[in-house]
Specification:
8-stranded parallel β-barrel; 8 strands; TIM Barrel; single chain; globular; alpha/beta
Length: 291
């Protein structure tokens, strides 16, 4: 089972918005060396809505090839078209991804029956471990716990990224999930709480900036070192908040540029982080020990 701190890695871009694959390789090394437990490529933080299919495949292949088995690679392959999700997932398997992360279909507003059939169809079509991704605040589509747990009965649906930010819903999943089904927090501010209640890890935005601390917090939380986990989380809490003052990945890309890890490229309709948030982000970086 995947567990620990899995970074929802940002996609580096040049100032003109084109992909910077050399910077991606350097980011991957930064995360592996710092202890990140997995790389999640082309998720929300990776600007999946604005990369082309060819770029999507290029990013997955680059990540898999450069990681070279050092940590698991999870490829974002969700779509609001079931056929597209199957195609993306097939390609991720072809390129050697360890698992796929599939967001709920956005905009279509499917029923719970439609959601079940969508995810079941992808799972049936492609034999690769698949993680559900529920983030209703972004998609306008909420996968109920009952539907998620019904999907958990399918062999290659192996976990869920719960980005609802609801500890109550996360607790319900943990209590009712079958053995071996991973529960991952997709909300950094409540990630520690979910792990202390029995969750298996985080798929994290904050880990882009402080991979070592996020890994150490997950280790402490998963091993019952509650005071240590809380101490680390207190250092990170400013980042948990400030990295979402504008839609992800706007703030995190600004921070990564400040750290000298990427250039400033971001794709419309997203734009660079507003100056009014810069001081708050710098204060959160300082609190977390980021230069």
């Amino acid at each position: 089972m995947l567990q620990g701190s899995m970074v929802a890695i940002a996609t580096p871009m040049f100032d003109d918005g084109s992909l910077d694959l050399d910077a991606l390789r350097k980011l991957i090394d930064f995360h592996v060396d710092a202890g990140s437990d997995g790389i999640v490529i082309v998720g929300t933080s990776g600007e999946s809505p604005t990369v082309t299919f060819d770029e999507h495949y290029q990013l997955i292949k680059t990540a898999v090839d450069h990681v070279n088995g050092r940590v698991p690679v999870v490829a974002g392959t969700g779509a609001n078209s079931t056929r597209e999700a199957i195609e993306l997932t097939e390609q991720a398997k072809k390129f050697g991804a360890d698992a796929c992360l599939l967001v709920t279909p956005y905009y279509n507003k499917p029923t719970q029956t439609g959601l079940y059939e969508h995810f079941a169809a992808v799972a049936k079509a492609v034999d690769i471990p698949q993680i559900l991704y529920n983030v209703p605040g972004r998609t306008g589509c909420d996968l109920s716990n009952d539907t998620a747990l019904r999907l958990a009965e399918i062999d290659n649906i192996v976990g869920i990224k719960d980005a609802t930010g609801s500890v109550e819903r996360g607790t319900d999943l943990i209590i009712r999930a079958p053995e071996g089904f991973g529960i991952y927090s997709g909300d950094d501010a409540t990630g520690l709480a979910l792990m202390l209640l029995g969750g298996h890890g985080v798929i994290s935005v904050t880990a882009n900036v402080v991979p070592k601390l996020m890994h150490e917090m997950c280790v402490a939380a998963r091993s019952g070192q509650v005071a240590e986990a809380c101490r680390i989380n207190a250092k990170l809490f400013g980042l948990h908040q400030q990295l979402f003052v504008e839609p992800n990945p706007v703030p995190v890309k600004w921070v990564l540029r400040e750290m000298g890890l990427i250039q400033s490229g971001i794709r419309l309709p997203l734009v660079a982080c507003s100056e009014q948030h810069h001081n708050g982000l710098r204060a959160a970086m300082k609190a977390a020990g980021v230069n």
